[in-house]
Fold this protein.
Amino acid sequence: MHALSPHRIVFEEPIVRTHVGLTRFPDRCPICGLRATKKKRIDATPKEPPWAKPPTGRRLTTIQRIRLGLKPVTFIVPFCEEHVDIDSGRGRMRVAATYFFGLATSILIIAIMFVGSDLWLGRGVPFWAYPFLGIYALCFAAFVLTYRPSELESSVKVIGFDVNRDHVFLQFKDKTYTDEFLLLNKSNAELVSWIVRV
């Protein structure tokens, strides 16, 4: 994926453009390809455009989003027994990792001032600075790892929406799954190689 302009994005592998309200998914797991036995609701709600954000910077309420035409968008995707709950608890892990990384960063800023003061006075680096750097590195690594795309996010990736938000752009990891999806939605889905981000 690479951008030719601030808004036009070209993909090395074509992605799927499909109608939001008419989309159906193949009856097999998009992660492993086995026959699906469960179904999972995936949230694909579009982000708020700049003009829709309140002056306070707070997120819009559900009622405000509906009034502005930003209705929640979800897809029911079949998964196998093993992968249907693969992302359960991941959101909590990301919140925890963000909290501890933010806390560690705040402490790091204060620690830098103390270390700088000690160096200025010729005392050298205090002994506690080294283990703290190790803890900070662990917090940073945990933060990065938890925000890497999960297997579910990699298998069914929501790229974005068109201007009218009637169509969604999807990218599937498995090419065979992509072919089955196009066959199942042949009246309202197609492959595209570039999009205009809105």
The chain has two domains: 2-87+150-196, 90-146. The longest strand covers residues 8-19.
